[in-house]
């Protein structure tokens, strides 16, 4: 169907202070936004996520998180910090993160990208070239250059030197270019040397960078996946209050303090020297 505004030229004339200016027609904008949504790699189950269809209840930390998410959407692209959404599995962190991503794309046409952290590392590894000792930029470049990136499930991948270097490269590049990132993680940000802390899961260097570039938003709640599909705010609230206070999993093995010591020591060494190598060895 021919666009009645621009006659399919893609441009329309508007008056700005009595001066005629030519701008992109809305019909092209819709096409662009549809394309941006397609390119954002949002998994099918999250494609309808919106803050307006996210059920909230009387949970101060959750309400604060939603409030910060809405402010982020309103201010984008003029945002100085990204977000780290922290809490147990199933409380809607991905829903919130993807809602922000979708809203930003819909309102600004920005280039946004979603990646599950493990999936991203797998994709980078799969392009690793042992002869050239490099990984393809085809995977890395869009991740570094996206105007808004969602990295889901941070800390799920076992921390190895390669994982740490690769994540540092991505995060540092985005930090230097002032491109915001929204992370989600199941690992609590507790300062003491707990093996299941975010710090131990992502490493000292990445953790301190996250602290600089993101606002940390931590909340607790019931697992949405255990609730009936038509659960309302009251059901959620009751379910949340009925569950025991979240306890950190106890893990045997190397004491946390020793792990932390090792991590810290490692980071006293030279700065990032990412070669793209060793990806295949894990
Ligand atoms: Zn048009």
Written overview of the protein:
The chain contains 10 helices and 7 strands. It has about 280 residues and is α/β, with parallel strands linked by helices. It has one domain: Rossmann fold. The chain has a 5-stranded parallel sheet, sandwiched between helices. A two-stranded antiparallel sheet has the order 1-2. Helix 6 packs parallel to helix 8. The radius of gyration is 21 Å and the shape is globular. Zinc ion binds next to loops.
Sum this structure up briefly:
With 282 residues, the chain is α/β, with parallel strands linked by helices. The protein is built from 10 helices and 7 strands. The protein has helices at 26-39, 60-75, 93-108, 117-126, 137-145, 161-176, 198-202, 204-213, 233-242, 256-267, and strands at residues 11-16, 19-24, 82-86, 112-116, 148-152, 181-185, 214-218.
Draw up the topology in text.
Blueprint: E1 11-16, E2 19-24, H1 26-39, H2 60-75, E3 82-86, H3 93-108, E4 112-116, H4 117-126, H5 137-145, E5 148-152, H6 161-176, E6 181-185, H7 198-202, H8 204-213, E7 214-218, H9 233-242, H10 256-267
Parallel strand pairs: 3-6, 3-7, 4-5, 5-6
Antiparallel strand pairs: 1-2
Helix pairs in contact: 1-3, 2-3, 5-6, 6-8
Residues 3, 5-6, 25, 27 line the site of zinc ion.
């Amino acid at each position: 169907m021919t666009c009645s505004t621009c006659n399919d030229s893609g441009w329309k004339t508007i008056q700005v202070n009595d001066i005629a200016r030519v701008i992109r027609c809305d019909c092209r904008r819709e096409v662009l936004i549809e394309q941006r949504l397609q390119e954002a790699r949002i998994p099918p189950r999250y494609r309808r996520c919106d803050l307006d269809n996210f059920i909230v209840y009387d949970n101060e930390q959750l309400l604060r998180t939603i409030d910060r998410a809405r402010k982020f959407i309103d201010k984008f692209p003029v945002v100085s910090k990204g977000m780290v959404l922290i809490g147990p599995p199933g409380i809607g962190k991905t829903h919130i993160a993807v809602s922000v991503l979708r809203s930003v794309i819909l309102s600004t046409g920005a280039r946004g990208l979603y990646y599950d952290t493990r999936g991203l590392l797998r994709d980078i590894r799969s392009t690793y070239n042992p002869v050239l000792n490099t990984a393809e930029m085809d995977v890395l470049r869009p991740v570094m250059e996206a105007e808004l990136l969602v990295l889901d499930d941070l800390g799920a991948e076992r921390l190895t030197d390669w994982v740490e270097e690769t994540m540092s490269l991505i995060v540092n590049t985005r930090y230097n270019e002032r491109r915001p990132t929204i992370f989600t993680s199941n690992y609590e940000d507790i300062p003491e040397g707990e093996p299941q802390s975010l710090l131990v899961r992502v490493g000292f260097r990445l953790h301190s960078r996250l602290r600089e570039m993101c606002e940390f938003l931590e909340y607790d709640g019931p697992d949405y996946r255990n609730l009936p599909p038509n659960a309302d705010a009251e059901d959620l609230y009751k379910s949340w209050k009925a569950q025991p206070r979240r306890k950190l999993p106890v893990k045997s093995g190397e004491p946390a303090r020793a792990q932390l010591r090792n991590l810290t020591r490692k980071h006293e060494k030279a700065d990032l020297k990412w070669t793209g190598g060793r990806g295949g060895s894990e």
